[in-house]
Amino acid sequence: MTRFDLPPPPPGILERSNEEAVDAFLAALAAAGASGKTVKAYRAALMDFLGWLGGKPLREVTSSDVAGWVYDRLTRGLRRPRGGAGDRRERQVTMHYYTLFLRSFLGWLGLDVKVPVVRKPRGRRVEALTREEVERLLTAARDPLDLLIVALLFETGLRAQEAVGVRLRDIDFQRRAIRVRNAKYGEERVVYYGDLTEAALAAWLRLRRLGPDDPLLGISYSGLYKRLKSLARRAGVEPSKVRPHVLRHTFATEALRRGVPLPAVQRLLGHHDIKVTQVYLHLLDEDVRRAYDAAFAPGAAWGQPQWPPQPPAYPQQWAPPSPQQPPPGWQPQPWSQQPPWQPAGWAPPAWGQQPPMQPAPGAAQQPGWQPQPWPPGGQAPQGPPPARRREKAET
Predict the structure, then answer these.
(1) Is 272 a catalytic residue?
(2) What are the helix and strand counts (H, E) for the chain?
(3) CA distances from 152 to 99, 148, 171, 186, 196 (A)
(4) Is the CATH code 1.10.287.1770 the one for domain 131-290?
(5) Which of the chain's termini has less CB crowding within 10 Å, N or C?
(6) Cα separation of 187 and 193, whole Å?
(7) Helices 88-109 & 18-31, crossing angle to 10 degrees?
(8) What is the CATH number of domain 13-109?
(9) Catalytic residue among 131, 245, 272, 290
(10) Is the CB of residue 155 less than 8 Å from the CB of residue 196?
(11) Mean pLDDT of the chain
(12) Which of 16, 136, 271, 282 is catalytic?
């Protein structure tokens, strides 16, 4: 929450009525630079507390009074102009800010009263429209103004109050840029638009003759809100999903999905703290499903799953080598004849003859040694004993 450097309260502030003290505090807020919406929110919180307090002077307020107010509002709900107490989550969110506002007010008055701040519940998942829903809204537009509203909010991420505050002189048609002069916190920023908004602008400006200071849309916030609801019903989209801020969420989500860096999205949205922008880093359900299917769908990495599991196939299954084809004109010969692959001049020995024996290459032969005949059916003859063994026997 933004902290304001408030001027001190006027002397004797606690001697005035409760309503006068609230008015003095709200005037100090406005003087410190708070926006009209901020002042309005503070007023709602403080007047709700005074309404519960009754006529009890502020100088007599105790911590028990504050605790009783908080408990009553959390259990029974808040007083709303249009009725309805809201669900428990809405009450917690509202009382979170109401207790912050009351603590600032009582501290400004100089009262030593402890104000327990209601814990803010965890935020819900950010709502955003799908691309198909945005296309259906664009298709269901009944006039150029409907088309311009959807395209402008979707392509720029403007808040509703910022969109209705855009004037013709704020648009740079050459750069396709819009200067937002009534931005939150009173700061200016520049946003950009794309082809959809450019086409919708051209169609809208052909129908309307606008001066430089004329509002672009020419409608109020409530008019913008009602047009979006009517457009949602015609498009067949759930009306509760189609709100100006949901289109802002859709812009931020789509920008991040298309690769726009987070600091750039922060600047386009006008956020002071990048932690606020990080809420849009969520992945929508269809993104999670698409990423899961890409990784684990049948055929994605291993083919169709089988049960029971089969051992993985080798990169190339083994196959016996194909037999070598004989040369052209070759014919098989009888076994008794020499096959063509035998070396020239070679002939198998007769069955009872001694095969030719040749000494091993490099073997030293003894003087006078001759190979012995091959005894039929017997052992091969022993060669000459090694010289070392003969010498040993002689000694």
Answers:
(1) no
(2) 14, 3
(3) 36, 6, 12, 21, 8
(4) no
(5) C
(6) 20
(7) 90
(8) 1.10.150
(9) 245
(10) yes
(11) 80
(12) 271
Domains in the chain: boundaries: 13-109, 131-290
Distance in angstroms between the alpha carbons of the first and the last residue of the chain: 115
- Strands across the sheet with 171-172, in order? 171-172, 177-180, 189-192
Q: What is the pTM of this model?
A: 0.58
CA angle 364, 365, 368 (to 5 degrees): 155
- Residue among 381, 391, 326, 393 nearest 355 (CA): 381
Distance separating alpha carbons of residues 183 and 164, to the nearest angstrom:
11
Residue 245 annotated in active site = yes
**Which residues make Cβ contacts (< 8 Å) with residue 372, sequence separation at least 6?**
381
Q: Is 159 a catalytic residue?
A: yes
User: Structure tokens of 367?
Assistant: 């003087």
Phi and psi of 52, rounded to 5°?
-75, -35
Tokens found for residue 140: 């269901």
Locate tokens 């999205």: which residue? 265
The rounded average pLDDT for each run of 10 residues, N- to C-terminus, in the chain (395 residues) is 80 92 94 88 95 92 94 84 62 92 94 91 77 93 94 94 94 95 82 94 93 94 94 93 92 89 91 83 68 68 51 52 61 54 53 52 55 55 52 42
Active site residue 184: yes
Strand-pairing partners, residue 172, are 177
Place of tokens 């083919």: 303
Catalytic residue among 42, 73, 98, 159: 159
Choosing from 42, 98, 193, 280, which is the catalytic residue? 280
Under DSSP, the state recorded for 220 is: -
Per residue in 1-33, pLDDT tens? 667 888 889 899 999 999 999 999 999 999 988
Residue 301: per-residue pLDDT: 53
Among 167, 184, 227, 243, the one annotated catalytic = 184
